[in-house]
Amino acid sequence: MSSQPPTGPPSGPVPRPSGPAPGPPPRSGSGAPRGGRPRKRTLIAAGAAAAVLALIVVLVVSLGGGDDDGGGSAASPAPTDTKAAEAAAHAVATRVALAPPDWGSGFTEHKPYEVDPAPESLVRENCEFASRPSRIGTLASLQRNVTETASGIAGTSEVKVFADEATAKQYLADARDNIHRCPDQFRGKERWNGVREATPPQLPGFDELVAEEGRQVVSANGAKVNDLYVIATGRDGRNILSAYVVGKADLDAQIQKYATDSLQKMRQRLEQQPEAAAGR
């Protein structure tokens, strides 16, 4: 899949990793992460250690830093005031991500309600669905999870703000690569079948739109289920907005509508944010 499943019925809790997921890395290519940082060598002589450290600093500044299992190519150099840029991006994400009333009547918060920062998704060569920390150039990555008690439909709205448009484009390319990597995917006991790229909703204001569909056939506790999920994702400049909705397969029409309406509402909110407009 190209996004983390929402919490609660029917998918189960979203893991919040403290580091890169274990196992083999993704295949090489445009969607594969670059190598990690070289390990520091321990030197006995203090003078030699200082010299090596100085050289590493020069190389990091020259090359734009390493990438701890983040996908795609490295981002452009960070703004001079990184903390201010991150604060502005987080303010955008906080205001754009949807709260339960935004989804409609009957939706409530589901724990964990907010995942901040939200990890990136990864589909390995063996078709395992996993997570990894955000790539270099990610200024904000916020996810909010909701559920509708009556229908059992669960939803996630996610907002990612990147330092530049190139990094946002690469993120979306990597997400599309995840969709096409394996039609059948797993994570622990969970199983998804028929993962495919679908026709995205026709919504104005986006530079790119991607949609994904599939079925969850085994839940996190090992029970057999027949649930449909839809992920609608759009890129507007350096901002990525995503709506993930999952529920019983016979609720197909409702699931599709929730995904489209939620993505559209986030786009409308983004347009109202002065920080987002300034960063385009």
Give me the number of helical elements.
6
What order do the helices and strands follow?
Answer: HHHEEEEEHEEEEEHH
Biggest beta sheet summary: 8 strands, antiparallel
Tell me, briefly, the overall form: globular
Structural class: alpha+beta
Describe the structure concisely for a colleague.
The protein has 280 residues and is an alpha+beta fold.
Word description of this protein:
By secondary structure, the chain is an alpha+beta fold. The protein is built from six helices and ten strands. The radius of gyration is 20 Å and the shape is globular. The two termini are 28 Å apart. About 26% of the residues have low confidence.
Q: What labels describe this entry?
A:
8-stranded antiparallel sheet; 280 residues; 6 helices; globular; two-stranded antiparallel sheet
Topology overview:
Layout: H1 46-63, H2 82-96, H3 100-103, E1 107-115, E2 120-123, E3 129-132, E4 138-148, E5 154-162, H4 165-181, E6 185-187, E7 190-198, E8 208-218, E9 224-236, E10 239-248, H5 252-271, H6 274-278
